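User: Sequence in, structure out. Go.
Assistant: Echoing your sequence, followed by the structure tokens.
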Amino acid sequence: MDKVLKRGFMKIAITGAQSTGKTTLLKELKRDSKLSLKYDFRDEITRRMQKKGLSINEGGNDITQLLIMNSHIKNSLIDNVIMDRCVLDGLVYTDWMYDNKKVSQWVREYAENVFNLLIDRYDHIFYLIPEFSLEDDGVRSTNLQFRDDIVDLFDHYIKEYKIPVTRLTGTVEQRLNKIMETIK
């Protein structure tokens, strides 16, 4: 808490596997007039990559992951920000792609270096646990095994690095209440 008071601003991330409700929560937080005056909101990066014509999800590659990690660097430079995803997401997905021979070792190392550099800059990381079925929105992966692998990697890194996350479950309203309680 001292780190927040000394800086006078906060970096807040909503993290987790696909189809856990991150984007829905961010949209709801944006609707709060007090928050919208105080915070800049950063939408999920991966969708922007797809709009640029890059492969995402299980089809990601070196270029996709490098651009995603660079976007996380850019987001970390913003004061008073609430973001959909953070460097933890970048590392988790890059690690999965490396394990599945989709990205090069140096890209995996780059993602880990960015993660190590920036992970302590977040004041609050809200981790969403999958509670919903995968929905096909034309962007996110609907591969259940992929999501389960990603969840396992999130759990692994949160435990290995002792990342202080607030786990969110329940309805959108319950999750919003927990976020508001935590950041006040």
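User: And one key feature?
Assistant: The two ends are 11 Å apart (CA to CA).
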